[in-house]
Amino acid sequence: MPPTDGLAEQVRAASCDHGIKRWRLYLTEEQMGSVAYGLWLHRMTGSAAEANRFAREYGVVHSPARDSGEGPPAVRGGAGVSGRG
């Protein structure tokens, strides 16, 4: 699955808030789903830390079962989310 339209541009437009030492990344709900999918793929290679933090902080996860219509929606959350990391 390719990244959602506009995701690369949003990542390039991310800015660092030096006061709190965090990056700010604003994504649509669809873009958040694309990020969750990428983190899920990363998790499948052995590292779940990023996917777990994304799920914990923003309530967004990718689940193949959810995407197939089983269980709750795969993406939850608002359109304008400030990413931290």
Question: Your description of this structure?
Answer:
By secondary structure, this protein is mainly α. It is built from four helices and two strands; from the N terminus they run H-E-E-H-H-H. Helix 2 runs antiparallel to helix 3 (49-58). The protein is globular and about 40 Å long. The two termini are 24 Å apart. The model is unreliable at 75-85 (pLDDT under 50).
Count the DSSP helices: 4
The strand count comes to: 2
Low-confidence regions: 75-85
What assembly state would you assign to the polypeptide chains in this entry? single chain
- Structural class, judged by helices and strands? mainly alpha
User: Could you give a short account of the major beta sheet?
Assistant: 2 strands, antiparallel
CA-based gyration radius: 13 Å
- CA-based shape: globular
List the helices and strands and how they pair.
Layout: H1 7-12, E1 15-17, E2 22-24, H2 29-44, H3 49-58, H4 64-67
Antiparallel strand pairs: 1-2
Helix pairs in contact: 2-3
